[in-house]
Amino acid sequence: MSEQKKPIRVMLADDHPIVMTGFAMSLEAAGMQVVGQAKTPSEAVTLYAAQQPDVVILDMRFGTELTGLDAAQSILKDDPRAKIIFLSQFDQDSLIKETYRLGAHAFVTKDCDPSDLVTAVRHAHDGKLYFLPQIASRLASMAVRGDVTPQSQLDERGLEIFKLMAEGLTNAEIAERLDLSTKTISNISQSIKEKLGVHRQANITLLAVKHGLIEP
Q1: N or C: lower Cβ tally within 10 Å for the chain?
Q2: Which residues, at least 6 apart from 187, have a Cβ–Cβ distance to it below 8 Å?
Q3: Cβ contact 56:82 at 8 Å
Q4: Could you read off the pLDDT of 87-130 as tens digits, one per residue?
């Protein structure tokens, strides 16, 4: 007699209790076991370490400074084999690309059919990627036209400065924030503008919003 297959252990992280409850019910109805529900990115990291779930479903946006991407980076640092699914009501191209670049197994929208989430969990558990048709189409489109996002063109420090520029800070204010000289920031900001092909403040802000780097 073969041993009964163990249910897939899933952890959820979302700051909307109604969303978490609905998805938890759908997963449990499919025979999965929800082993924890976190409401913040920090709580998600702690709960993951404690529960060691088979799959973790992370919301992209929380009402805090940290995001689902931040939580995922911390989780993957401690457990490179972690199987992560991102959940979002946002679907900017840059966010989708970033989740897969980070190592996620799926990106699903909050309005997806519960059966799609169940399928995504099963694929992730088996180490496979899962793409909703509309997400696959957008990723294919990005591949064809090339990856020209700020995330792909700038290093970590450059991206940090670009976000501050997009928020309207002056070179002097950015220099003070990052404890660097105004001349250094001036040189870096000029390089950023040339790399991205944007020079006016309004265009810098619009570009950052388009790629999900700052809130509109």
Answers
A1: N
A2: none
A3: yes
A4: 887 666 667 777 877 888 988 888 888 899 999 999 999 988 88
Half-sphere exposure of residue 31: CA atoms within 13 angstroms, side-chain side: 6
Here the tokens at position 103 are 């190592």
Q: Give the H/E segment covering residue 122.
A: helix 114-125
Note the residue count of the chain: 216
> pLDDT tens-digit profile of 122-162?
999 998 888 887 777 767 665 545 556 788 788 888 999 99
CA angle 121, 127, 7 (to 5 degrees): 45
CA angle, 209 then 211 then 214, to 5°: 40
Q: Which two tokens stand for residue 136?
A: 């696959």
Rounded Cα–Cα distance for residues 100 and 77 (Å): 16
| Terminal Cα-to-Cα distance of the chain (whole angstroms) | 58
**CA 207 – CA 201 distance, rounded (Å):** 10
Alpha-carbon separation of residue 145 from 3, 123, 148, 171 (angstroms): 49, 28, 9, 33
